[in-house]
From TrEMBL:
Residues 709-738 have a biased composition (Acidic residues). It comes from the Eukaryota. InterPro entries: ARM-type_fold (IPR016024), DNA_pol_V/MYBBP1A (IPR007015). Its main location: nucleus. Coiled coil: none annotated. GO terms for molecular function: RNA binding; sequence-specific DNA binding; transcription corepressor activity. Pfam families: DNA_pol_phi (PF04931). It is found in: Nucleus. The keyword Nucleus applies. The keyword Nucleus applies. This is MYB binding protein (P160) 1a.
Amino acid sequence: TVSEMSTEMVALTVTAPGPVKQAGILQQNRVFLDFFWDLAKPDQEARLKAVENLIQYLKTNTKADELEYTFKRLVDGLAHTRETARPGFSLALGQVLCAFEDIPLQSVLDKIKVKHNLLTVKKKLLRNAMFGNLFGVLAIHQSSRISKEPQVVLGCVQLLQSLTQHRQHLKDLPTKTMTDILSEVIQEEVFEEVLLSALKTDLASAFSTPEQLQLLLVALQRFPQTLKPKKLKKLLGSSTIINADNIPKLTEVLKMAAGSVKKECVLPAVVLDLLKLSLKEDSFQLFWNNAIINGMLKEQPGPAHYLSFRLLGSALPLLSTAQLKDVLSGEVMIQYGEHVVSSQKPDRFKLVPEMDTYVSDFLQGCQDADKQLAVMVGFSSLSNQGYPVVPSVWRVVQHLQPAALQQYVEWLKDMFLQPQLDKLLEFSTRKQKDNKEGKEQKENSIIRLRRWVVSRLSSIIDNHQVKKEEDLIMGVARFVFFHAFFSAKKASSSIQETKGTLSVPLDDKTKGVLVNSFFGLLLSMHHLPLDDDPAEGVAVNQKRTLGVTADGTMWIYHLAQYTQLLLSQPKLVNQPLSPEQRKAWDSMMESVASLKKKAKKGPTAGNGAFQQLFLLVGMHLFKAPEELLDIMRDLQSCVDMALAKKAKKKKKKQGEPEWVEVMVEILMALLSQSSRHIRQVCKTVFSSICPHVTAEALTAILDVSSSGESDDSDEDDGDDAMEEDDDDEEEEDDEEGELAVVDQSFRLELMKVLQQQNALATEEDGSDDDDLDDDAMMKLDKGLAALFSEQKKKSQAKKDEKTELQKEKALVRDFKIKVLDLVEVFVARQAGSPLVLRLVEPLLTIIDRGMNSNSDQQEQDFLRRAADIFRNQLCRSKVYCRTAGDRQGELHDLLEKLMAKTQKLSDSSVCLYYFSASLYVVKVLRGLSFMGNVDVDRVSGIFRDALSSFMARRKSPLTTQMFTDLFSRFPVLCVKLLDTIVHHIASGARVHQQGLACVFVLRAMQSREVQQLLSGAPWTELCVTVSGQLASSLEQVDQTETKVVKDKVVKTLELCQFLVKHVHQQKLSVDLEPLQKVLQSLTSTIAFKKTGKLEDNYWAVVKHFGVVPFEKSAH
């Protein structure tokens, strides 16, 4: 470090002889002076490091002359011409004064006054001198010693007072600094005896600027015994600051303060201090009503309004419950609401995030439930046409105390049942005020309010950060469910929800919101954690229990019991289910009860999942009874069959489907519902029945996943044409809109209308528009109007039909994506099952068709999902079928089919998936043993054909990486294919493919597994063959300087280097002389440069024959 260097230099000055001593001092001074250079650098990190190093240096080398020089340089630097340098020198001076407390502050203050005297300094340096004085006082203040020397405090205040007249340069910095100094003075006697007389003028002019008012407020806070009412009356003319006479002055100061922080987006400290003083003086109402509402809010929307909003947020922790209710139902809130609505337009300033922070901080720090409730109700009541301006998902609710949360939820329920718009803080924009519609507007406001309340209640349950009791969760769920599907006939204490009467009946839109919110709540409760904190003794990484209450019962079961209660009270509640639907419900509850009994006897795989599925389908029976009634019956019989099958292996009747096949059909039928909850439960259920899935059940899933491929195979061309036609039609529609192109039928109809009224001009009769009388013209107009109206209806009908088709298509695709969930679960849970092999071809078909079509985003998502399942979860799975012994022929046929298809493809990206599938099939055939059930000769032949095709064709979908993966994963096949590859080193169809052959052979010969398989004579024989092929290949090189040839030579030389080095190391009996001769002649064929990849590889090879580069031999 620099300090260590300087310490070493000091040591040198003591021990070194005369001449060297002088050099040591110079070096030491250079290091010392560098600190001051660094203080002036624009980089803040460099300045801070320089301060640290300077202090450390001075503490280590306490020399009077260096310390004196330090003070001189630092005082000079306070008025540095570079603005970024001044804070660095000021900070350094403050830190030096803090470190060396024996240096009197008065002496430093005197130096500052002398050096930066505004009366003697040159005019062009006057501004720098002003900042020199200011930063000098700041340095003394930062030393933390100023309160110990009263005369220095006085001197600093007087110096700052002399600077206040230079506002054009220093603005309000001198007054702010005085306020900071005043905050540090501890003793009231010092203020009274030393400072009061000096500050008298500043305190008396407190209403001139925000800074001077802040000075007075700080003095009042710090020294209340000195600034008593009598003293204030002498200074200000009144014994209090906030009174009716001073309100206009204070308002002006507040406006100035608002303008001063226009860009900073903060609340000036003077405003909050003024509010605190109003609470202390018991004049808050006067201050709020007159200075804020009748003062600041009378200004145009802008800084004055924003200051008022920020003051409202900052005041929340300071006010009583009554004051909170008053403020939150006043004009400031109304103006804030208008700001929220108007700021939703783009490029408008938004204060909402700031207010959210104010409210969140208040609720987090407040333990008073009444105050919390007052704030939540106040903000929730601020509404525009019935809709509150705070979002329904407002996250500040997570800081509420349990008691406040309970009361807030009750308030929300009451607002839903009996919307009292007169109790809301309602406001309207200018446009809304002009468009009043009376009764209709009121009904619309009630609808908007109720929709918000339902969303607000749901979001409280959704937010896992909210601390809520189980009774509250259940109460909200019961409330939403009851009003979504039931209505009360008569109030009863046994059903709490019947007690609340609706002052206005629910409309269909609100009912729809309730229904959707209820099923959203079900999903949230399904994921609801049991405890907020892990219990003692439970591992932190242990899986948390979700979706159950403290007694272990599922939330949805509690709701089913509540539903059962409602259905059993027809005298109290209107019944939404028909007798047939009610019978299905009762049957479902019996099945759940039966499953629960069996679960008590012992845990059964899938028992909980079946219960969840039953209950969920039962709940959805209220939403879509026609669709789910048959599904419920099938589910009932299917589960009965499944349980009976597990209990005793019964023989099924001829032609009767397995229970698991029926269950799969049911699950797929349920997946057609637009419910995330159903989708998740279906995955859970399918996961539990995976071990029982049969080939027929899996085929049913695959048929759905690949439907559109198989079903539309005969119409592929037609579909493509239709897609193109659709695109063309869209373009034509646009053109029709722009160019008014009409079809032939419309043209004929138009001709008929005109002929009927004799409105067509012909050359023979020379008729003219003027020949038609008024009646004829009227008839013509009516005919034309009717014709164009009919044409418009036809056009709209076509567009509607097209939109409907697109919607249906999107639903089908969405359904297929959901069914892929089942495929994914099966691959994950049953990767070792032979049935997994049935997935290979269907998944490849989906990928192939998807990549070869111009599909939309949804289709791309489906394709991406299928590709991920195939590549990452099937082919790369560490678990795979190991019982392929009885289906060797079938798998070999599949491999042959896949590789044949691979070579016919045109797209390498699709080819990659087919090749991966082929490797997966080989892996399955190999199993656990060396090559297991692999017919090595047959498989080698299949891959040899592919390799030969790859090495012969100019454009091939196969890639180098595919064969590299094959060789690395299956060395036995690599050995079998080596002869083909080696042959292509010299006999490849093209130069590029000869180079690829060298790459393949090099990778193979470097493999330890290949070396072990060919150990002994076969390995030596391979080396001989490769040597001969390399010599032949290099002999073919001509004098052309093409890049392809050079690349081939580079790859050939890389193989040569490995071969020659290996032969020499292993001392193999391989004749390398022919290869050596060809290498020697290569320099005459190719023009070598001084350096390059080709040249480096060449010299690396011939080095093994004792040849050195020309340059080295010359030396």
